[in-house]
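Session log. Operator J.P. requested a structure for one protein chain; no other inputs attached. Running the standard single-chain path with token output.
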Amino acid sequence: MSGSDSQRMRGGQPVFILDEDAERTQGKDARTSNITAGEAIAESVRTTLGPKGMDKMLVSDGGDVVITNDGATILDEMDIEHPAAQMLTEVAESQEESVGDGTTSAAILAGQLLSEAEDFIEDEIHPTTIVEGFSQARDIALEALDEQILDVDIDDDVLTDIARSAMTGKGTGGITAETLAESIVYAVGQVESNGTIHDENIQIVAQPGESSSATEVVDGVIIDEEPLRDDMPRSVDDATVAVIDTDLDTRETEADIEYDVQSADQLDSAIANEQRELRQYADSLADAGVDVVFVTGDIADMTAGFLANDGILAFDSLSSDDADAVLRTTGANRLATVDDIESEDLGQVDSIAVERYGEDELLFVSGTTQADAVTLFVRSGTEHVLDELERAVGDGVDAVIAAAETGGVVPGAGCTEIQLATAVRSAAAGIEGREQLAVEAFADALDSIPRTIAENTGMDPIDALVEVRAANEDGRGGILARAERGTVGDPVEQGVLDPATVKREVLSSATEAATMIVRIDDVITAE
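Structure written below.
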């Protein structure tokens, strides 16, 4: 670092403003470094986009292997150190949290915008001009997106198309995307009430040991729990359920009290009193007609024995999330004590059963009529396929929820991006100054989405882009997967649809990330 970077002269005396070990990169060098890092992030996920996207193998320092083409997972697993690159991964995380899909598209679009900006900076166009042009183009694209929303009823058939489109290209093992999509739409429908989707009531549980065709929808919840004792029942039909938010153990006093036991009779009396207290817990539950009890605290061994003798299935040390899931599923109320249990505080469920899967045991609380809770029970023979299948199902669920909640869907397969690029180019003619160049560059960046899809399907990207543009002049056209290579066709006729809210978030988050990086002209790194 030069002396001028670390100090300034005031009254003939040097004034130090940075530590002498700090590193500083300014101006064009800073922008070039940041833009290159952002482009590298986009390139890392580019080949995963589309129905024929390739997979990435990610290996950790400990040897753990993740095989996926899910953009959010790839960026999350990568060990990224460059601060500008980390900004793009944060954008992907935000995209994932907001709408659950579109992370790869957001990263690719942001990377292409950075590439366009790099050319402008080389031509001495000021970053503020670039940022202003990109922002205007984003607003034009968002307005044009509203015009692309299809005039269709968002029924189960449309939602099935949405889910299938979200999962196409991801590993689903021996089960088809169509079958999974139908299960997802059913699951989302189960947690919809008066137009509101309670997505917290949808659970995805993955368990190895069977082929992916064994994946099913369970009306209820699945919990990683096993009975307290082997002599307790492993299944209960038409079960009455209590959820207790305390310990079923001897009460402890806050005072530090010592007992002076001087005879065997006194000891026997103390033990009898303790047993009576523990017996009372079981008696109270049995008298209330409870078949299954879930306890967030601890259950004493003696209490567990009494419960087993009464034929009550018991689970303790339940997590808060699992307890909430049981409450939602059974309609029970959380109880602070077992004294004076009222019938309205108890829940009902058709079946509670503990099932063994290899060395694991899972508790199924299913067939409920008291609440709308549902679980997608994902199966596969291998861990790697199971992980990717679980991610695919998650993407499908998020896409269906996004479409159902907003009520807007647009053509997929790159068709919408082509239409948006056309609208942005048309509007650019009416923009004065150098901002017009940035607006036109934004349209070129939008073309990178269909161009990448085409390339990943084995098509010539330039020829495909020309053909798709021509198809969209008089109708609709997108890159569709056919056998080993792609082809241009109408995505709506083929049921390739995307939630409009995902596209909207991609435009906003990618532009925000790119403009933020372009505006940085000084990077100071402390050692």
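Operator note: The longest strand covers residues 347-357.
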